[in-house]
Amino acid sequence: MVLAVALGATAQTTRAGITTRGTGSFQLGFQTKQSVRRIQVNLNRDYRFQLRVTADKTLLLEGRWEEGRDRNNTFNLYIESGFDKDGAQGNGVVVLNRTTVERVDLNGKTKGQKFTIEFDSANSSSGSGSGSGSGSDNSNSGKFNQFSKSKSGKGTVKVQTQNDKSLNRVEIALYRSGSFDLGFSGDSRFRVKGKWQWSGNDIRLEIKDALGDGRAMGSGTVYINRQGNDVWKIDLSGMANNRKFSVSFRE
Question: How does DSSP classify residue 213?
């Protein structure tokens, strides 16, 4: 299988003709954030991917992909090379459904500088493009801008070279400032911290601290119920302590 996805003012698969309007950005270090005009993603049968980003200049990232847990429309990307000869490492997700490309969310490092690449399908009912529909403002009307709750459920944390451990509780804190703090407990106890923002009807996380590593990198999604007032599932993945990790938790 080769799945080719092009994102820009429109997003299309060469096989299925999927089209999606959205907005995107690319940021390297402390440089000014650039608008992403087009992204092309190829997911190959050998589980290799190529992702071409057209912003102020064109960038090519390559690495491995795998299907996300619990959702067959989520693909995890592990970046192994890019930025020409400078090299790159990082991870993120591409989210698809039958008719649209919902999201691209990547972060990593190149030559010691952090980079982020984000692309979201438009969720504004007006269809006008930029604005509150992009979900970039945590004070969006009709959506909460802070959240604090302790939830019981079932989950698993996987850390490379270690045995999987079960989770049964999470303390969720989404702050008005845009930062978050998740405290998981069960067979293992650990915290995950970073930045959050709305992405359509769910919440996107950028991980900056995890499993005791203040230099951790990763991303994730907090899934909100249909009523828009509670969390029912959390998926995370990234790198901490030089090991890949993933967390899946649901009610």
Answer: B
- CATH match of 3-127 with 2.40.160: yes
Q: Which has the minimum average pLDDT: 65-79, 95-109, 115-129, 175-189?
A: 115-129
Average pLDDT rounded to a whole number, residues 215-233: 90
pLDDT for position 119: 78
Angle (CA) 23 48 53, round 5°: 25
Dihedral, CA atoms, 192, 77, 56, 131, nearest 10 degrees? -60
Average the pLDDT over 159-174 and give the result: 94
Q: What is the mean pLDDT of the segment spanning 8-21?
A: 39
Reported CATH class of domain 147-250: mainly beta
Burial of 103 (0-12, 13-18, 19+ CB in 10 A): buried
Please tell me the number of Cα atoms within 13 Å of 173 on its side-chain side: 13
- Domain boundaries of the chain, sorted by first residue: 3-127, 147-250
In whole angstroms, give the CA distance from residue 100 to residue 145. Answer: 27
